[in-house]
């Protein structure tokens, strides 16, 4: 199976636009498998970034209680 990737704009319709440049590369007949990758909600993406920043930040003094459980080399 051959993959062809392109981006298109969702406009609230039941049909997706295939750019002419891509459409010209498609066979005239046959079957195709379609997989849609849709961008995450902007608010969700912002939340993930903040959560990740919090995660990688230095441990707070309150978390030092767990240090005694860490493996020692």
Write the layout of secondary structure elements.
Layout: H1 20-23, H2 42-56
Characterization of this structure:
By secondary structure, this protein is mainly alpha-helical. The chain has two helices and no strands. It starts with 19 loop residues before the first helix and ends in a 17-residue tail after the last helix. The model has no long low-confidence stretch (mean pLDDT 82).
Output the radius of gyration. 23 Å
Q: Ranges with pLDDT <50 over ≥5 residues?
A: none
User: Between the first and last Cα atoms, what is the distance in angstroms?
Assistant: 49 Å
Structural class estimated from helices and strands: mainly alpha
Helicity range? 25-40%
- Biggest sheet overview: none
Mean pLDDT, all residues = 82
Total strand segments: 0
Short description:
The protein has 73 residues and is mostly helical.
Highlighted features:
mainly alpha; 2 helices; about 70 residues; elongated
């Amino acid at each position: 199976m051959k993959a062809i990737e392109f981006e298109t704009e969702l406009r609230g319709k039941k049909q997706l636009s295939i750019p002419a440049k891509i459409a010209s590369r498609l066979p005239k007949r046959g079957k195709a498998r379609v997989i849609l990758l849709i961008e995450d909600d902007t608010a969700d993406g912002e939340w993930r970034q903040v959560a990740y920043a919090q995660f990688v930040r230095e441990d707070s003094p309150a978390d030092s209680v767990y240090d005694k459980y860490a493996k020692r080399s």
